[in-house]
Specification:
Layout: H1 2-5, H2 13-19, H3 24-34, H4 41-58, H5 67-79, E1 85-87, H6 92-101, E2 111-113, H7 126-135, E3 143-146, H8 149-157, E4 161-164, H9 174-178, H10 182-190
Length: 195
């Protein structure tokens, strides 16, 4: 909100949560479209860069873990039978910092895919397909977990079994769940895929 306000873009919960999960330039482009603002690609990228700088300065170190997801991660690792991958639209630097903050050793993952590993953003399946390929697992054999409409759609578009963690017991962010797009819930459970 702070960075976008410099460009007369308003971000509130009703704007943020339905678009959550998009990469930052896609998010900003969509906000511009919704608010009828004409910004150049250069301005959009500038906002994205400022957002990352602001995030690093004010948010890193304040992340909270999602206990229900950590329990799944721990159980999967302890089974000794499953390969684990992490897919993120963030940089390696941000991923490493967040994992450290929530006390997760990056070595728990067999593969970590960051925003430098793919070009096409969610709901395009590329990031998840890259992870499956690096894990040497068929996408249809992958159960993937995410917390946004765009995560779920990318997983489904990759042919994976998608789980929206907002609907797991003890998910801590009731506000995020409240603002979940109804079509996300419908699509996630019906198997309908959008591009």
């Amino acid at each position: 909100r702070v960075v976008c306000s410099d460009y007369d873009l308003e971000i509130d919960r009703s704007t943020f949560y339905p678009l959550f999960g998009m990469d930052s330039t896609g998010f900003i482009s969509k906000v511009c479209e919704l608010q009828n603002k004409k910004l150049s690609q250069n301005e959009i990228e500038n906002i994205s860069n400022k957002r990352l700088a602001w995030y690093k300065m004010h948010c890193l170190g304040r992340q909270r873990s999602v206990p229900c997801v950590l329990r799944i991660l721990q159980g999967a690792k302890e089974s000794g039978k499953l390969k684990l991958g992490l897919v993120s639209s963030e940089s390696k630097e941000v991923i490493d910092h967040v994992l450290k903050q929530i006390n997760v050793n990056p070595a728990v993952f067999d593969v970590i895919v960051n925003n430098h590993d793919f070009t096409l953003q969610k709901p395009n399946p590329d990031s998840f397909l890259i992870a499956a390929k690096k894990l040497r697992v068929k996408p249809s054999r992958v159960r993937a977990y995410g917390d946004s409409y765009y995560d779920i759609m990318a997983m489904k578009n990759a042919g994976m079994d998608a789980v929206d963690v907002k609907y797991l017991k003890d998910y801590p962010n009731a506000i995020a769940k409240k603002w979940t797009r109804l079509d996300s819930l419908f699509l996630a459970y019906s198997g309908v895929v959008t591009a």
